[in-house]
Batch of 3 targets.
Target 1
Amino acid sequence: MGCDVLCVDNFYSGTKDNVAHLLGNPCFELMRHDVTFPLYVEVDEIYNFACPASPVHYQWDPVQTTKTSVHGAINMLGLAKRVKAKILQASTSEVYGDPQVHPQRENYWGHVNPIGLRSCYDEGKRCAETLFFDYHRQHSLQIRVARIFNTYGPHMHPNDGRVVSNFIVQALGNKDITIYGDGSQTRSFQYVDDLIEGMVRLMENAVGFIGPVNLGNPVEFTIRQLAEKVLRLIPNSTSKLVFNDLPADDPIQRKPDISLAQEKLDWAPRVPLDEGLTRTIDYFRRKLGSV
Ligand code: UDP
Ligand code: UDP
């Protein structure tokens, strides 16, 4: 798009490897920084993606997780206010909690446990949405809020802990596939390129549509179906399915209603799960050196 890009990361759950190929590009700059501290730079647009999204990582230091979402949002909104930048927040389907409405539309207020193990993430992201809308109303900031549903793809960390990378890494290593619970809970998996397309359309839309808007793939699978799919795509794997305890507050079903994104952004995901999984499996094969 011809933009200069300043990438700000504290590498809590990411690695420099993922941007190594950009380091020699004169339009790209990398800065090690934690958004819970103020940041003084000059920019036109801000994509605020900060906060680990894998339950394993965000529950490791839950206080820091809330700080990242809340203090991080305040600092990025303060920055946007000073330099008059447009700012997009990566919100989440977790704002719907363990939903009692299915599929989830943007006008559903959610069903969130405020004191559980997931609350640091869910309530942090909900408070960030509040801050975005209050900076919009109070300070006329140009905001965008995307609610991201389960997303996967190349460049996930092998120890990310979320289900798609776990199952692929386990299958490639001939280790047990760890299904939590009986595997009947559902998720809808979006390939990363579809998400990026949706976020850029949201940021750039000319009619000033601010959201919140769901970005996700509405094709729903049970976790058991996902495990079986991964094994079908890695046919020489000797992995077996094993069933472990279901973590507390694990949502039973989740699927986005994307009619708002379709209407306002002319956006819908294009990459079906089989194709996205194949690309992700190829990535992990190369990364882990397995055949
Ligand atoms: N802030 C920042 N970069 C800036 C401007 C502000 O990191 O370029 C931070 C600053 O630390 C402040 C926060 O953003 O605490 C909120 O800024 P705002 O102007 O909304 O509030 P105030 O400074 O009046 O508390
Ligand atoms: N899950 C699983 N095995 C794993 C990791 C996750 O069965 O090794 C389940 C998890 O309990 C949840 C679903 O897969 O029901 C999606 O989990 P993930 O951590 O990817 O994201 P979530 O949508 O729960 O934030």
Target 2
Amino acid sequence: MHLIVQKYGGTSVANPDRIANVANRVAKGWRDGNKMVVVLSAMAGETDRLIKLARELSEDPDPRELDVLLATGEQVTVSLFSMFLRSQGVPATSLLSHQARIYTDRAYGRARIIGIDTARVKEELKKGRIVTVAGFQGVDEVGNITTLGRGGSDTTAVAIAAALKADLCEIYTDVDGVYTTDPRLHPKARKLARITYDEMLEMSSLGAKVLEIRSVGFAKRYAVPLAVRSSFSDQPGTLVTVEDEEMEDVPVSGVALSRNDSRVTITRVPDRPGIAVRLFRPVADANIVVDMIIQNTSIDGYTDLTFTVHRGDLKKTLEIVGPVAREIGAEQVLNDENIAKISIVGVGMKNNAGVAARMFEALSGENINILMISTSEIKISCVIEDKYGELAVRVLHDTFGLETPPPKKK
Ligand code: ADP
Ligand code: ASP
Ligand code: MG
């Protein structure tokens, strides 16, 4: 007997037929003698619909009330799911976040899980029931409803699996695993049998939405055995795991594309101590995450400063840096939303020279201009013009031969 946490995404519960299909799969696991905890997303498109509805009444919806609204999407699916199982004679109980006791901070719309009290879930499991938990939502210390940010049901699932010390956490979605790149962008994308936690962290943060980044963080920290599988097939899927020697031999495991960033450039910034902090401190205080930062070599005491922020944060960022730029005597603040970030990821990069040069060569071969570059131990990212994003994915995928599985070690 195993304790298994399964999460089903929006497309897997998009209509009553699919809910019944997924519920039957879960019931099978339960009949086989496993303890089953199921985390569900809202039906596909529902969260977007609710956001649109909110915007029809308020240009800038109040974050607390928006979370109350958005949490309803997941309430619908868990109740329908458990209702169906009960109608089949299978005992099931749905739990919302306050019942499953998923505690978060009060950062509405992007709340962090700070603790889970598993007593109620364990009690239900002990009674032999399937427990269905609403994904994406949490509750703060005084009972306000919060949500974890888009794609947050993955995080609910992994966090519950960690808290319960589950034997396995399976994320069921509309693709049958983690691919070398988004299979919707390149037909030659190949399903990976395994990917390391660190590679997956990079892939998620660089645009591969198949797993939400915080879920991977939890999985790594608490060593949760994590698999990504399809709810439409019985394929084995991809295992997210610790790295081993074989994985270290492959310089590049995946390519990711992100279209969520925008670029801000401040020209003729006086080059003296304390300027960077005057610009970036208020941005940080507004909870805006700055990704890449580039400062040019100073000429005649002035320099240009370029950085990227999430597209949704651009307006607020400009409102903050505009006045500061004027105060410090910079020339102007420019911005560009037509950018994409293309990245290659691989733990083997650590031991392989020349990977960056091959990447730049491949992009230049297609006349793709690189606007910014950033690197870490296991990834290289380039900001390019948005219109070249998909071309860059295909070119890099082909350049690093990702279509072909690496040879097996004897
Ligand atoms: P769910 O609603 O089940 O949470 P998501 O839409 O959040 O599903 O994530 C699944 C999608 O992630 C896939 O349909 C695919 O287009 C996209 N994706 C992006 N990068 C990758 C990748 N490297 N491997 C697999 N899927 C990817
Ligand atoms: N329903 C939420 C969303 O669409 C959470 C999730 O699906 O993971 O972002
Ligand atoms: Mg998702």
Target 3
Amino acid sequence: MENMDSSGKIIIVSNAEPFQHIYHNGEIVQEKLAGGLTTGLDPLMKNSKNLWVAWGRGEADFEVTNQRQKVVVPDKETGYTLKRVKLSENEVNGFYYGFSNSSLWPICHSFPHKANLDKNNWETYKKVNRLFVESVLEEFNSGDKIWVQDYQLALVPKMLREELPNAKIALFWHIPWPPWETFGILPCKEELVEGMLGADFIGFHTSWLVHNFLDTVFQLGGAANQSENIARMNSERAVVKNIPLGIDTDFFKKTPKQEEKAKQLKDDFSCSNLILSVDRLDYTKGIDRRIQAISTFFEKYPQYKEEVSFVERISPSRSRVQEYKNMRRKIEQLIGQINGELRGETWVPIRYFYQHLPQKELIPYYLAADIGLLTPLIDGMNLVAKEYVATRSKGMLILSEFAGAAETLTEAIQVNPYNPEGVADALHEAISTPEEEQREKFVKMKNKLNQMDIHWWRDRFLDEWELSFHSR
Ligand code: GDG
């Protein structure tokens, strides 16, 4: 990762760490962690003097760190330094499971009725944000830039600004920003937004999220200039822009081995059309509604029975939370019901996997799938949609109009994920699309993915950040 100038390093600060250390057969092993944010940023850190500060949640994480909680990952040759923040169980409950995932996550994804507004969680969130700040301050040298990531660390920019008035501080927000009447429900709304505005520059994935954020600042009594993308509140001021996160398209170039595995998958699933969905288990991903849409599809278009199969790959997430356990049960019941009612001697309508796969191993699934079906109810971006397109030269992408990726991938068939009839019709349309048209759409989408890839995103972010600092 390049620095903005030769004088300093970049310090990335995020809740999730890119690598964890765990015990395996009595030995300590390093494991790469997947997730939108870490898979996006990790390639940018390779071979650099930059530093990544994150919560160390692996059981052996602090066995391998030095006295300042630092370790080089993934290895000495290609590595960079990861500095881990240690959290107690109480802190994890109040900060991570509590305020971040039970308050901010539902509010930002426009599920206000799911939000827990417990004041204690907010207090712990503030305390833990402070711990991240202290960890950064231990490593900060004049000239360094600090790039904070995501909703778990909203207060870090202002806390840092108070200590380092002249530092360059930026924030990228990976999840949606809701309309004011939803965000306004949070009792700590003003403190949270002011915390973010300690940054010189704030990035979101799409233009509509920038619009929502600037409107929030205005509603809170601040000044928001939608045409100049500037937000001010009390003494804070930030430039706010949309810079959609891209992917490492080279990583998704297929190999002969992956193609072979894809062929084998297609044979195993014995169907003429394979339709793939890949999601982290979360209510925002619209998994249960999608499964209902699959049932509608077979009712409305019975000619596809025995011909079309769906592969649902769900990766476990927040599995300690009761709501996520219930969601899993509901999804499995629905799939069981549909398979029980429709399956033939060898044909199975829905192939279901509840397991995490290393990112490389998703590629054969992308290659095997004639159609990618990504229908989150709302999503900051949805990298899986981009990855599906990047691996292939033809196929069809059916994408929720409420995923950030829809702003870029306009050639996808865009659907309302709440409308099962619409999703069923989109599936019929996708299956019926001639190959030539599929290829044309893929050329256009792949051009955009190559042009706006992960390297573009980093450079664009750093350039805009630099400009925002000069205009202060
Ligand atoms: C959040 C926002 C935003 C690897 N194995 C599996 C798996 N992976 C990788 C995928 C992809 C990433 O994880 C998942 O990224 P998404 O963007 O689809 O979703 P979130 O995890 O919800 O990410 C999202 C993102 O941050 C980045 O800003 O796009 O809106 O919610 O790279 O290759 N993913 C799954 N199963 C695996 O086995 N689902």
